[in-house]
C-alpha cells in the first residue's frame, strides 16, 4: 500500500535564540489522517517547533512544505488561513463573547447588507458543535461552559477553518476524563476525514490511545521517530529523558556526594492528602531533617504544584501541611515562610528574582523584617548577611549593587538561594534549581544542596534532570497525573526504577533491555 | 550575549532613551535656568525664586505620594478631589482651632486612602478604576460639606500659609522636609524596599512572603495624606477654602511630575529627586512662557508634549 | 543565559497563575448576573423616575422631560464613543476637552457656512483621536496618560483659538446649524433625534459588523484576539478616532444649541461619560457592554441631577457624590462577579 502524499514536511529546521539552540535540524513528516505524537521534556524544542509551524517564529534554516508547496508563515493568521490550526493548552478564546461569535470571529457569515447574519451563525455553530458531541446554547458567553466544552469550541474553530493539520498542545491538561474521551472521539473523526493531527502531551496513556506515530525531541534535536507501537512505554520514557535502559552508572556525573544524609527522626515536614482541583489528587510527602526527597515524574505530573501547595502559594481544597509538629494554615505564603518553609520557584525570572532591585536588596528581601529595627533597614546587618552569602555561594556580581536582572541565570539562582538561606529555613523546596544555569554553577548548587542537608535541613528536590534527581535524592516520590504512583527508597533509587514507575509498566514487561539491572 | 550587543552599539536608541529617562529632567531644569538667566529680566532674584518655589510646593507634595503609588505599578486619580476635601474640612473645623481641624482632615484623608487601597489590594480592582470613583465623588463630598468658596480668618492658618523662617516660606520648608522624608522612606525603610519589590514583580514579592496587601493599602493612605497636606497648605496660602477649583487637574500635574522625573509607570523604581525636579521643570516651563507673554494655552500644549515624550522615553524600560 | 526563556514557559500546567478558582457560574446564576449587569441601571432609572414623578409635580411635565432629553443628548453622544473605547479595555480622558474644542471650532467655522462648522470640529477632534489611537496601539503607551495629555493639549488649542477663553464666537440665528441645535421635529429637539440616530447606528456597528466583533474581542482577550486574526492595532486606532469624532460632534451640536462656542464647557465631562458607561453595565476592564446601557446610564445621571435640583435644599454637588457612589458600587460588583466567574 503506497502511503498517501505527505501533507506537511519539515526538513532541517533550525532556530537559535540568544544563548540557546532551540531547534537543530529537525525533520517532521505528516500524512493525511495521521495522528502524530510530539513529545519531549522541557526545553526539548516542542514549543519552538510548534511556534515555527504556526508562524509565530521564523526558522533560521530549513524549509517547510505544506500540501506540496514551500511555505513561510509570518503570522499565526497566515498559517491558519493556509490550513494549519492550533489548539493551545490554555483555551485561547474570548471568554466574554458568545460561543457562536468565538467560533466565527474573523469569518462571520454576513447578509447582503454586510451585516452579521446571526441566524446563520447560530445555526452553523450549533451544527458544528453537535458534530463534536457538544450540546450547548451557542448564544451564551463562552465562559459559562466548562473547560472541556471550551476546549471543544476551540477545536471546532480550528477544524472549521478548513484545516488540514491541527496541532494540539497539551489539550487535555485541564479536562475531566469524560471530556478526554470526547476529545479522542473527535480526533478519530478528524483522522477519518483525512486531517493530520500533531498531538503534544505528557500523558502516556493518551499517546498510546490516539497516536500512531511519534517524534521525540531532546535538546532541540529529533532523537526518535517512527510508529508508536514499536516503542513501549519504558522505551518512550527513556528516549525522552535521554537514558539508555540498563546503562550502568560508572561514575557520578553530578557533584552530589551520594547518600550520606542522616535521615532519622520525626519528619520536619509532613504533607498529607494535598488536593488542588485539576492538579493534585491527594498527594502526601514527608521529609525528615537532613533528608533530600526527590519528586519524580514527567512534566505536568504535579511536581511544581506539590511544592507550591506546601509553600502556601496554591490554595488547597483539602490536605494538611505540618512543619516540625505544628500544623500550618494553608494558602498563606507568609505563614509558611514563618514556619520555616522556603520555596525556590521553577520560574526564576518571573516568580523568583525582582529584576530591578540589586543583588543586595534581593538577598535581603524576605528577611527584611529581621534585618530592620523600627522599620528602618539596618544597613550593617544587611551588609553582613549579604557578605556572608555572596562569599559562601560565590555569587559573581560586579558589586552587591548590581541589578539582579543583569546577572547570569546561575548567579540569579544563587541570589535566590541566599535569600532563603538568610531566613534559616527548616525545609527547602527546590523546583528545578539547576535548570538553565551553566555547568559550573550547576555543580556548585548541587554541592550546596548536599551541605545543607548535612546541616540538618529537609530538602524537597524537583528536577527534570534524572541524574540530578537520582544522585541527589535519598528517596524519590514519583508523581503521575497529580497523584503519587510510587516511592523509591534505598537501592531502588535508580534511573531504571524511576522510569519504570513513571511509565507505569507492569513489573516484568519482558523487555530485553531492562534485564541487566532488574532484580 | 546581550552585553556584547550593547558594547558594539554604544549609541543605540534604547540607551539614549534610558539616559533621558533618568537624567533628562535635571538637564531640562538646568537648561531652562540657563535660558532664563539669559533672556528673562529679573530672573535671578530671590524674590522670583521664592515665588516659583511657593507655587510649585503643593504640586511637589502631591507628586511625592503619587510617586509612591506609581512605584507599586498603580496610579491615584483622586488626589485633586482629596485636596478639595481637605480644604472643605479645614474650613468646617477651623472653629475648634487649627490643630483639631488638621486632625479631622487627616482622618478624612486616611479614610479616602483606605477606600482606594482596599479596593486595589483586597477587592482587586485596577488602580485607575478604583481611584476614579473617589475622583468623581470626592469633590462632590467636598462641595456638599462646603458649597462655595469661604474666606478663612485664622491667624494660625494665615501664618502657616504666608509665614517664613529666615526668609524661606513655611510652604517650601514643609515641601522640602516631606521630600526628604519620603526619599528616606524609599531608600532606608523596610516598607520602601517592599514597596519597590511589589511594584517590580508582584508574583516574586508574594512568593517571598511580603505583606503585599498591607503595603498597598499604606501606600494609598500615604498618598491621600500627602494630598491633604497640599490641600491644607494651598488653603492656608489663599486664606480661603475653595473646594470648587482647588486641586483641579492636580492628578495630571502630579503624574506629569513623577513621569517626567524618570519614575516609570510600570513600577519598581522611584526617583524622588526626579519627581521634585519634574515638578520644578513644569513650573519653570510655565513661568518662562508666561514671562515672555506667551498665553497659558501654549503652556498646556507644551505640557502635553512633555508628558507624551516622557512616557515615550520610559516605554519598555523600567521592567524587562 | 536565556536558555529556559525560549521553550519552557508554555508547556507546564504548573506555571499557570496560582490564584485561579474553579468555574462556578452555573448557567442560571450566570444569566442572573448578566441580567443585573445589563439591565440593573434601567431598573434603577425606572424606579427613580417613578418615585420622582410621584413626589414632584414638576418632574413629569413635557417641558421638564424635553429639557432633560436635550441636555442628555450631548453627554450621550460623548458616552457613545466612550463605550467603544472602554469595551476595548481602554479609556479616553480627552473627551471633555474635545467637546469644548468642538464647540469652539463649530462656532468659529460657522462664519464660513454650516458645512465648515460641522466638518472642522470633526476633522480636528478626529485627528486628535487618531493620534491618541496611534500612541496607544502602535507605541503601546498607557491609554490614560496618552488621553490625559490629549486633554491638556486640546484644551490648550481651544484656548489659543479663543484668545485664552476671552473670545466667544457666536452662531448666526438663521443658519442650518442653529436649526440643528435649537429646532425641533415632531415636538422633539433635533439634538435628541441626532443622538437617537447615532445610537442606533452605534448599536448596529457594535453588534452587527465585524468591526464590532473585533472591539469586543480586543477587550475580551487581546492576545487571543490577535491569534484569532483580529486586527488589534487597527481596531484600537479606530475606537479612539470614533471617540474623538463623537466628542467633537457633541461639542458642535452643543454650540449650535447654545448659539455660541462656550469655552468653559466640558470640564469633568470625561468623568461623567465614563460614569454613565460603567453604570450602564459596560465592564471597565473591557470585553463586555452595550451602547443602550450607556444611554440608560446617561439618562440615569441626568434624572438624578434633575431630582436633586427639584429638591431645592440640595446642592447640585450631591450629583457628583451619587455618581461616585454608583461608580464604586458598580465597579466592586463587576470585579466581584468577574472574579467568581474567572475560568480555571
TrEMBL record, chain A:
Bilayer topology: Peripheral membrane protein
Record CDD domains: ABC_Carb_Monos_I (cd03216), ABC_Carb_Monos_II (cd03215)
Molecular function as annotated in GO: ATP binding; ATP hydrolysis activity
Location relative to the cell: Cell membrane
Keywords assigned by UniProt, alphabetized: ATP-binding, Cell membrane, Membrane, Nucleotide-binding, Repeat, Translocase, Transport
GO annotations of cellular component type: plasma membrane
Pfam families: ABC_tran (PF00005)
ABC transporter domain segment(s): 8-244, 248-506
Matching SMART domains: AAA (SM00382)
UniProt xrefs under PANTHER family: CARBOHYDRATE TRANSPORT ATP-BINDING PROTEIN MG119-RELATED, GALACTOFURANOSE TRANSPORTER ATP-BINDING PROTEIN YTFR
Protein name: Sugar ABC transporter ATP-binding protein
From TrEMBL, chain B:
Gene Ontology cellular-component annotations: plasma membrane
Membrane topology, as annotated: Multi-pass membrane protein
Location(s) in or outside the cell: Cell membrane
GO terms, molecular function: transmembrane transporter activity
InterPro entries to which the protein is assigned, alphabetical: ABC_transp_permease
Cross-referenced Pfam families: BPD_transp_2 (PF02653)
This protein's record includes keyword Transmembrane: yes
Keywords, sorted A to Z: Cell membrane, Membrane, Transmembrane, Transmembrane helix
Bilayer-crossing regions: 16-39, 51-70, 77-96, 102-122, 129-147, 167-186, 215-234, 296-314
PANTHER family associated with the record: ABC TRANSPORTER PERMEASE PROTEIN YPHD-RELATED-RELATED (PTHR32196), GALACTOFURANOSE TRANSPORTER PERMEASE PROTEIN YTFT (PTHR32196:SF19)
Protein name, as recorded: ABC transporter permease
Lineage: Bacteria, Bacillati, Actinomycetota, Actinomycetes, Kitasatosporales
From TrEMBL, chain C:
Spans traversing the lipid bilayer: 40-60, 72-95, 115-137, 144-162, 182-206, 237-257, 277-301, 321-338
Location(s) in or outside the cell: Cell membrane
Taxonomy, superkingdom: Bacteria
CDD domains: TM_PBP1_transp_AraH_like (cd06579)
InterPro entries per UniProt: ABC_transp_permease
Gene Ontology CC terms, in alphabetical order: plasma membrane
Compositional bias segments (type: Low complexity): 1-13
Residue numbers spanned by region Disordered: 1-29
Keywords: Cell membrane, Membrane, Transmembrane, Transmembrane helix
Pfam family, one: BPD_transp_2
GO molecular function terms attached to this record: transmembrane transporter activity
Membrane topology: Multi-pass membrane protein
Protein name: ABC transporter permease
Origin species: Streptomyces tagetis
Amino acid at each position: 500500500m503506497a502511503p498517501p502524499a505527505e501533507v506537511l514536511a519539515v526538513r532541517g529546521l533550525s532556530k537559535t535564540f540568544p544563548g540557546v539552540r532551540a531547534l537543530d535540524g529537525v525533520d517532521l513528516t505528516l500524512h493525511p489522517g495521521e495522528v502524530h505524537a510530539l513529545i519531549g521534556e522541557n526545553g526539548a524544542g516542542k514549543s519552538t517547533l510548534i511556534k515555527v509551524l504556526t508562524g509565530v517564529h521564523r526558522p533560521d534554516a530549513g524549509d517547510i512544505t505544506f500540501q506540496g508547496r514551500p511555505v513561510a508563515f509570518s503570522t499565526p493568521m497566515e498559517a491558519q488561513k493556509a490550513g494549519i490550526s492550533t489548539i493551545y493548552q490554555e483555551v485561547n478564546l474570548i471568554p466574554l463573547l458568545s460561543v457562536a461569535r468565538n467560533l466565527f470571529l474573523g469569518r462571520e457569515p454576513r447578509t447582503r447588507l454586510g451585516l452579521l447574519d446571526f441566524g446563520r451563525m447560530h445555526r452553523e455553530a450549533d451544527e458544528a458543535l453537535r458534530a463534536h458531541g457538544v450540546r450547548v446554547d451557542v448564544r451564551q458567553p463562552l465562559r459559562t461552559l466548562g473547560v472541556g466544552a471550551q476546549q471543544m469550541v476551540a477545536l471546532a474553530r480550528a477544524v472549521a477553518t478548513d484545516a488540514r493539520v491541527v496541532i494540539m498542545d497539551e489539550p487535555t491538561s485541564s479536562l475531566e476524563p469524560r471530556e478526554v474521551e470526547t476529545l479522542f472521539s473527535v480526533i478519530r473523526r478528524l483522522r477519518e476525514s483525512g486531517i493530520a493531527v500533531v498531538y503534544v502531551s505528557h500523558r502516556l496513556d493518551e499517546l498510546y490511545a490516539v497516536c500512531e506515530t511519534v517524534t521525540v525531541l531532546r535538546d532541540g534535536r529529533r532523537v526518535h521517530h517512527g510508529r508508536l507501537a514499536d516503542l513501549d512505554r519504558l522505551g518512550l520514557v527513556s528516549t525522552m529523558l535521554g537514558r539508555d535502559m540498563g546503562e550502568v552508572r560508572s561514575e557520578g556525573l553530578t557533584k552530589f556526594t551520594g547518600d550520606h544524609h542522616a535521615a532519622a527522626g520525626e519528619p520536619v515536614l509532613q504533607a498529607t492528602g494535598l488536593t488542588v482541583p485539576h492538579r493534585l489528587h491527594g498527594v502526601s510527602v514527608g521529609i525528615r531533617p537532613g533528608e533530600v526527597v526527590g519528586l519524580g515524574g514527567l512534566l505536568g505530573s504535579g511536581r511544581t504544584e506539590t511544592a507550591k501547595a506546601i509553600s502556601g502559594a496554591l490554595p488547597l481544597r483539602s490536605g494538611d501541611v505540618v512543619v516540625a509538629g505544628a500544623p500550618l494554615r494553608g494558602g498563606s505564603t507568609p505563614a509558611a515562610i514563618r514556619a520555616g518553609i522556603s520555596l525556590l520557584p521553577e520560574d526564576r525570572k518571573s516568580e523568583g528574582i525582582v529584576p530591578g532591585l540589586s543583588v543586595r536588596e534581593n538577598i535581603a528581601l524576605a528577611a527584611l523584617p529581621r534585618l530592620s529595627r523600627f522599620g528602618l533597614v539596618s544597613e550593617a546587618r544587611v551588609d553582613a548577611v549579604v557578605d556572608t552569602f555572596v562569599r559562601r555561594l560565590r555569587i559573581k556580581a560586579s558589586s552587591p549593587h548590581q541589578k539582579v536582572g543583569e546577572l547570569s541565570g546561575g548567579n540569579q539562582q544563587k541570589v535566590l538561594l541566599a535569600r532563603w538561606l538568610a531566613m534559616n529555613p527548616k525545609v527547602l523546596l527546590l523546583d528545578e534549581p539547576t535548570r538553565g544555569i551553566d555547568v559550573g554553577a550547576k555543580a556548585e548548587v548541587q554541592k550546596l544542596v548536599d551541605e545543607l542537608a548535612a546541616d540538618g535541613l529537609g530538602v524537597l528536590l524537583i528536577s527534570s534532570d534524572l541524574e540530578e534527581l537520582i544522585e541527589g535524592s535519598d528517596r524519590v516520590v514519583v508523581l503521575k497525573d497529580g497523584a503519587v504512583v510510587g516511592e523509591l527508597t534505598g537501592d531502588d533509587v535508580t534511573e531504571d526504577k524511576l522510569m519504570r514507575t513513571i511509565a507505569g509498566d507492569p513489573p516484568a514487561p519482558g523487555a530485553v533491555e531492562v534485564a541487566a539491572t532488574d532484580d | 550575549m546581550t552585553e556584547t550587543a550593547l558594547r558594539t552599539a554604544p549609541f543605540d536608541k534604547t540607551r539614549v532613551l534610558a539616559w533621558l529617562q533618568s537624567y533628562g529632567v535635571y538637564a531640562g531644569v538646568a537648561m531652562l535656568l540657563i535660558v532664563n538667566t539669559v533672556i528673562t529680566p529679573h530672573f535671578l532674584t530671590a524674590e522670583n525664586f521664592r515665588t516659583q518655589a511657593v507655587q510649585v510646593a503643593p504640586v511637589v507634595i502631591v507628586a511625592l505620594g503619587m510617586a509612591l503609588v506609581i512605584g507599586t505599578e498603580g496610579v491615584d486619580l483622586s488626589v485633586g478631589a482629596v485636596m478639595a476635601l481637605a480644604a472643605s474640612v479645614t474650613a468646617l473645623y477651623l472653629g475648634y482651632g487649627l490643630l483639631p481641624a488638621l486632625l479631622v482632615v487627616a482622618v478624612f484623608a486616611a479614610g479616602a486612602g483606605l477606600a482606594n487601597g482596599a479596593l486595589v489590594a483586597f477587592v482587586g480592582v485596577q488602580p485607575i478604576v478604583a481611584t476614579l470613583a473617589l475622583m468623581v465623588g470626592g469633590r462632590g463630598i467636598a462641595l456638599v460639606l462646603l458649597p462655595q468658596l469661604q474666606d478663612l480668618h485664622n491667624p494660625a492658618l494665615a501664618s502657616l500659609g504666608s509665614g517664613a523662617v529666615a526668609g524661606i516660606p513655611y510652604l517650601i520648608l514643609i515641601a522640602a522636609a516631606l521630600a526628604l522624608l519620603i526619599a528616606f522612606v524609599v531608600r532606608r525603610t523596610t516598607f520602601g524596599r517592599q514597596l519597590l519589590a511589589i511594584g517590580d514583580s508582584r508574583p516574586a514579592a508574594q512568593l517571598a512572603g511580603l505583606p503585599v496587601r498591607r503595603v498597598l493599602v499604606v501606600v494609598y493612605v500615604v498618598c491621600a495624606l500627602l494630598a491633604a497636606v497640599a490641600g491644607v497648605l494651598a488653603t492656608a496660602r489663599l486664606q480661603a477654602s475653595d473646594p470648587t477649583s482647588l486641586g483641579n487637574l492636580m492628578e495630571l500635574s502630579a503624574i506629569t511630575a513623577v513621569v517626567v522625573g524618570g519614575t516609570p509607570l510600570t513600577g519598581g523604581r522611584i526617583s524622588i529627586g526626579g519627581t521634585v525636579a519634574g515638578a520644578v521643570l513644569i513650573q519653570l516651563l510655565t513661568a518662562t512662557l508666561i514671562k515672555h507673554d506667551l498665553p497659558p494655552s501654549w503652556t498646556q500644549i507644551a505640557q502635553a508634549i512633555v508628558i507624551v515624550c516622557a512616557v515615550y522615553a520610559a516605554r519598555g524600560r523600567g521592567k524587562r | 543565559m536565556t536558555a529556559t526563556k525560549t521553550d519552557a514557559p508554555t508547556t507546564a500546567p504548573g506555571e499557570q497563575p496560582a490564584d485561579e478558582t474553579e468555574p462556578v457560574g452555573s448557567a442560571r446564576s450566570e444569566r442572573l448576573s448578566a441580567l443585573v449587569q445589563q439591565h440593573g441601571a434601567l431598573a434603577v432609572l425606572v424606579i427613580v423616575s417613578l418615585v420622582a414623578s410621584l413626589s414632584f409635580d414638576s418632574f413629569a411635565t413635557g417641558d421638564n422631560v424635553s429639557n432633560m432629553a436635550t441636555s442628555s443628548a450631548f453627554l450621550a453622544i460623548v458616552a457613545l464613543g466612550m463605550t467603544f473605547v472602554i469595551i476595548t479595555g481602554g479609556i479616553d480622558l480627552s473627551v471633555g476637552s474635545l467637546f469644548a474644542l468642538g464647540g469652539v471650532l463649530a462656532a468659529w467655522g460657522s462664519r464660513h457656512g454650516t458645512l465648515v462648522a460641522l466638518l472642522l470640529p470633526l476633522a480636528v477632534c478626529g485627528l486628535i483621536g487618531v493620534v491618541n489611537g496611534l500612541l496607544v496601539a502602535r507605541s503601546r503607551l498607557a491609554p490614560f496618560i496618552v488621553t490625559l495629555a490629549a486633554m491638556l493639549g486640546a484644551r490648550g488649542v481651544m484656548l489659543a483659538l479663543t484668545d485664552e477663553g476671552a473670545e466667544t464666537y457666536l452662531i448666526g440665528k438663521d443658519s442650518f446649524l442653529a436649526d440643528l441645535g435649537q429646532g425641533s421635529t415632531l415636538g422633539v429637539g433635533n439634538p435628541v433625534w441626532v443622538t437617537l440616530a447615532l445610537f442606533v447606528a452605534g448599536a448596529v456597528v457594535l453588534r452587527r459588523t465585524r468591526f464590532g466583533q473585533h472591539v469586543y474581542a480586543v477587550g475580551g482577550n487581546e492576545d487571543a484576539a490577535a491569534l484569532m486574526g483580529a486586527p488589534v492595532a487597527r481596531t484600537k486606532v479606530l475606537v479612539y478616532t470614533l471617540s474623538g469624532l463623537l466628542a467633537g460632534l457633541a461639542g458642535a451640536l452643543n454650540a449650535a444649541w447654545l448659539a455660541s462656542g462656550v469655552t468653559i464647557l466640558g470640564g469633568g465631562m470625561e468623568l461623567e461619560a465614563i460614569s454613565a458607561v460603567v453604570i450602564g453595565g459596560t465592564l471597565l476592564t473591557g470585553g463586555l457592554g452595550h451602547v443602550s446601557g450607556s444611554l440608560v446610564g446617561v439618562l440615569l445621571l441626568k434624572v438624578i441631577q434633575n431630582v436633586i435640583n427639584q429638591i431645592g435644599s440640595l446642592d447640585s454637588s450631591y450629583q457628583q457624590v451619587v455618581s461616585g457612589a454608583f461608580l464604586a458600587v458598580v465597579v466592586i460588583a463587576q470585579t466581584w462577579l468577574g472574579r467568581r466567574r474567572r475560568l480555571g
